[in-house]
């Protein structure tokens, strides 16, 4: 078992989320930065979809009650085991009683903790991802205990390393496709949308990131239609809202852009005040 000594700011169990339930209004959910979560599992040889801990801005402090192997990826939060600094992107054996802690945020916004074999928390609608009204808890709390498998007797640690390029943590370019209503914008609006930088407002969470700057909106509301993580909606006031992993499944605001999967990972690592710019993804040559 893993005992939570300090829960951090917003820490939750996440995997790849829930598919095939959107027709009944169930959000996808899942790791905000799937690239980092996938890599943490890859380091340990786990299935890519094994459940991990996602920590936002301020990490957790946890104690292991049985030996296992862990890996950290994503944001750099000055991670330590028993007050000794450890590296990200590396398989590390932990022993019973060891305490893993996360300190000052140095880069990025969300860090991921994977354990050998993944966390054994309840599965609801095909996923372990925490989400209010779907799972019992939305986040982990102090005193919680999370199950995981101990190291098998035949386990042999691997000393192989896997190179991970985390330059995307510093990127400010958000690649997008044209949204369903993009062509209803004037040429001037389209140019503004794709040329000026936008600032992430204080209104950002797992459901959506709202941008501070406005874009003049002369479009009529649309009939409520399907939306996805990465859909950029233009509100009547001219605010742009980028939907994230926990977003609703339908919406009535014009959908002017759609983020690529890589762009979602990049945006998930940004926080209030960060500046980003949209860039149309180039079409592949045949």
From TrEMBL:
It holds the Pfam family CT_A_B. Signal peptide: none annotated. Residues 23-286 form the Carboxyltransferase domain. The keyword ATP-binding applies. InterPro entries: CT_A_B (IPR003778), Cyclophilin-like_dom_sf (IPR029000), PxpC (IPR052708). This is Allophanate hydrolase. PANTHER family: 5-OXOPROLINASE SUBUNIT C. It comes from the Bacteria. GO terms for molecular function: ATP binding; hydrolase activity. Keywords: ATP-binding, Hydrolase, Nucleotide-binding. Transmembrane segments: none annotated.
